């Protein structure tokens, strides 16, 4: 049986209908539908419709507030934009606070959005790109739950702790990267398990702390940081900045709260925005023009910029739609018909 092709708008509406059907309000359902559709649109299967099941399971377990209305703190004149997610998903809180973040960064040269008490299971690049659309550079980071062993360790302690960066470009897609500080996102391990495929060597340890290529053993054990001690150090930095510094949960505390890695992690998130023109003021050269020289030199060597494949996939989706497999379509149908009973 063949799959089905949806337009971006059609798939977003279908996912949104699933979420509204299980009691999520329009703010929460809309934000989550947009970000998961973006995953499929950009050919990132680990952050697309695959994440719907975890979203529903987290709602069913009562570990996220499906009716949350995020609250933006009043402007206190500082560079901090604070938003309380009220126990809902981070994406809805981010969408609410983005205009304030952009305005504050334009005024002060830089600003930081702090999201507290949120659940986050989606990709970070949609948030980074939303900031670069305002002509600002951006960094985004958050912890997860403890599934990664620090370099030299054997037990889960750190999260996959994603980190993303974006630089705006006037006549081209922004320069964007978004990666887990583990060797691979945990969703990639789960996709290997579902497909019956072994993991590459160097991705994970089993429950006894031994290297493994078995995804089942990896999910019961620990993943590894990318780049050895370098990835481990960056992951620890993310725990400090987007967990401890903002007064929210670290990855071990998230796991204690949830009691399971089958639910979406609840923690905080930190988004930093910078005005290149403000930082470069008084210095020679336009920062955006100088960046283009650097990008051109990279491409001139035959290298590629990160996210180029995603942007090509996005253009294809806009022109040809998003094709889901028959199994994925059946999954959407089941979630729409059965709601929380399906998980």
TrEMBL record:
EC number of this enzyme: 1.1.1.338
Molecular function terms from GO: oxidoreductase activity
InterPro entries: Mal/L-sulf/L-lact_DH-like_ah, Mal/L-sulf/L-lact_DH-like_NADP, Mal/L-sulfo/L-lacto_DH-like_sf, Malate/L-lactate_DH-like
Catalytic class of the enzyme: oxidoreductase
Family annotation (Pfam families): Ldh_2
Gene3D superfamilies the record matches: 1.10.1530.10, Hypothetical oxidoreductase yiak, domain 2 (3.30.1370.60)
Keywords, alphabetical: Oxidoreductase
Domain of life: Bacteria
SUPFAM superfamilies attached to this UniProt entry: L-sulfolactate dehydrogenase-like
Family membership noted in the UniProt record: Belongs to the LDH2/MDH2 oxidoreductase family.
Protein name: (2R)-3-sulfolactate dehydrogenase (NADP(+))
């Amino acid at each position: 049986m063949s799959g089905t092709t949806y337009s971006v708008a059609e798939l977003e509406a279908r996912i949104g209908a699933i979420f509204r059907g299980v009691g999520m309000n329009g703010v929460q359902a809309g934000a989550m539908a947009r970000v998961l559709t973006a995953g499929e649109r950009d050919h990132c299967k680990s952050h697309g419709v695959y994440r719907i099941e975890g979203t529903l399971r987290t709602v069913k377990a009562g570990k996220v507030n499906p009716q949350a209305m995020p609250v933006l703190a009043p402007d206190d004149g500082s560079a901090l934009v604070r938003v309380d997610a009220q126990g809902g998903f981070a994406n809805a809180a981010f969408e609410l606070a983005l205009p304030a973040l952009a305005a504050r960064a334009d005024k002060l040269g830089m600003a930081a959005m702090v999201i507290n008490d949120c659940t986050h299971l989606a990709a970070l690049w949609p948030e980074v790109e939303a900031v670069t659309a305002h002509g600002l550079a951006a960094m985004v980071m958050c912890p997860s739950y403890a599934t990664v062993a620090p370099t030299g360790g054997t037990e889960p302690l750190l999260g996959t702790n994603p980190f993303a960066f974006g630089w705006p470009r006037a006549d081209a897609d922004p320069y964007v990267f978004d990666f887990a500080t583990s060797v691979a996102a945990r969703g990639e391990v789960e996709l290997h398990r579902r497909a019956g495929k072994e993991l590459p060597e160097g991705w994970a340890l089993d429950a006894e702390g031994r290297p493994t290529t078995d995804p089942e053993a990896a999910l019961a054990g620990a993943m590894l940081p990318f780049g050895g001690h370098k990835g481990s150090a960056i992951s620890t930095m993310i725990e400090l900045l987007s967990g401890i510094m903002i007064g929210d949960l670290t990855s071990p505390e998230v796991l204690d709260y949830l009691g399971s890695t089958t639910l979406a992690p609840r923690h905080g998130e930190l988004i930093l925005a910078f005005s290149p023109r403000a930082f470069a003021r008084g210095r020679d050269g336009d920062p955006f023009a100088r960046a283009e020289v650097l990008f051109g030199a990279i491409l001139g060597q035959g290298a590629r910029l990160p996210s180029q494949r995603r942007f090509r996939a996005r253009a294809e989706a806009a022109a040809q739609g998003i094709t889901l497999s028959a199994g994925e379509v059946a999954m959407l149908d089941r979630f729409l018909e059965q709601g929380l009973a399906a998980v």
